[in-house]
Amino acid sequence: MSRAAVVAGIGSCLPPRAVSNAELSARLDTTDEWIRTRTGIARRWHSDAGMATSDLAVGAGANALKSANESIVDTVIVATTTPDRPCPGTAPLVASKLGMTGAAAFDVGAVCTGFLYGLATGAGLIATGSADRVLVIGAETFSSILDPADRSTSVIFGDGAGAVVLRAGEASEDGAIGHCDLGSDGAGQDLITVRAGGSAQRLSGVAPEPGDAYFAMAGKEVFWRAVQRMAESCRGVLNVTGTRIDEIDWLVGHQANQRILDRLADDLGVPRDRCVTNLAEVGNTAAASIPLALDHAHVAGTLRAGDRVLLTAFGGGLTWGSTVLTWPALKRG
């Protein structure tokens, strides 16, 4: 049988402070009704002072390891847009805090598609025999890069982390990671971006504008590109794996915006009630959104062993990706 990476455990972590729409409405020109109608979000979670992305990653990683009945892995991959520092990467610190000094550890930067890129990378390491166990974490503290006065982003994004443990197994097993459809278009880099802080800005000889240090997104353009690219990617992975759309039990899209998720489901022909979503309760958590949604659905009993699950995401870069797997029997936290 062919060697493959198999999902062996899952976990998540949210920071302690819930931020309601009412709280945001008190300081922004918005209302609870406007936010719910435009995004589908009721609340999001923000980190307290002194809490970093690595702290959320450690929490999610520890819970995933517990779910898998594991204490160590060979490799730790952290997908994040909000690393603790520009240098070094966050993953080595996360590995160290989890008691795995010496493990290979590195970050993946693909914004909201980061978890799927990390999943594909971890699966590749296992398939080639370079690792036997890999911890893949999506973790974000997006509140640290949001302009608190920007209604268009502050109401959408939140903090959180989700993680899975991959182990070496066989391609025929439930939970095996097979083909991953991944893509990018760098010409769209300005649609989802933080303009200041990188080498392009620092070496431009031009002082940044005050808002350039904050996250910015061209919402309308991103909406249509997200639906198009995720739909194309989903069809691509279904075609390669020989899976019909009516064989999919659950669609788990990046939790960006409820209108995007609804439009994607309609485009693919998936009933909206077969879409896993926790967007209302956590907001858009970027690289953390898919593992968070999976863990919450797993804990709630929505996902059951044997279910066919289609994962898809779209993010800055521009990047996108999809994969399909059969949900395994996992321990619930």
From TrEMBL:
Subcellular location: Cytoplasm
Catalytic activity: malonyl-[ACP] + acetyl-CoA + H(+) = 3-oxobutanoyl-[ACP] + CO2 + CoA
Main location: cytoplasm
Residues covered by region (ACP-binding): 255-259
Record-annotated Beta-ketoacyl-[acyl-carrier-protein] synthase III N-terminal domain positions: 106-186
EC number: 2.3.1.180
Active site: 112, 254, 284
CDD domains for the chain: KAS_III
Keywords: Acyltransferase, Cytoplasm, Fatty acid biosynthesis, Fatty acid metabolism, Lipid biosynthesis, Lipid metabolism, Multifunctional enzyme, Transferase
Protein's pathway: Lipid metabolism; fatty acid biosynthesis
Pfam family, one: ACP_syn_III_C
Domain of life, source organism: Bacteria
Beta-ketoacyl-[acyl-carrier-protein] synthase III C-terminal domain residues: 241-327
Domain notes: The last Arg residue of the ACP-binding site is essential for the weak association between ACP/AcpP and FabH.
Family recorded in the similarity comment: Belongs to the thiolase-like superfamily. FabH family.
Subunit structure: Homodimer.
Role according to the record: Catalyzes the condensation reaction of fatty acid synthesis by the addition to an acyl acceptor of two carbons from malonyl-ACP. Catalyzes the first condensation reaction which initiates fatty acid synthesis and may therefore play a role in governing the total rate of fatty acid production. Possesses both acetoacetyl-ACP synthase and acetyl transacylase activities. Its substrate specificity determines the biosynthesis of branched-chain and/or straight-chain of fatty acids.
Name of the protein described by the UniProt record: Beta-ketoacyl-[acyl-carrier-protein] synthase III
